[in-house]
Design goal:
Blueprint: E1 2-7, E2 10-12, E3 18-26, E4 28-39, E5 46-51, E6 57-59, E7 67-72, E8 77-82, E9 91-101, E10 106-110, E11 114-118
Parallel strand pairs: 2-11
Antiparallel strand pairs: 1-3, 3-8, 4-5, 4-9, 5-6, 7-8, 9-10, 9-11
Amino acid sequence: QVQLVESGGGLVQPGGSLRLSCAASGSIFSLYAMGWYRQAPGKQRELVATIRNGGSTNYADSVKGRFAISRDNAKNTVLLQMNTLKPEDTAVYYCNADLMTTHLLRSNYWGQGTQVTVSS
């Protein structure tokens, strides 16, 4: 069993900041990439940012320069610092992990999602 537990969502005014956190736990043998995706009402889930275990990152064009992803490999945790938030950033944010379990099965896991609302 693998669990991804997210925290840090909420309501913020335009221009404000939030930090999301996601901790992976359970039968993890090796953790490859971790990342954040989001889904706004009526839209498909989209990539926000990913980070590989070597530290290389990838961002959606819409968040470049405003969001920063980081990870603590010792704690199997990924963070998303979101600055200069815009109303269009409003969505449910999901944590994702590409990992191999202790049973040597590689798969993707998702968190339960955390709501981010940017509104005045």
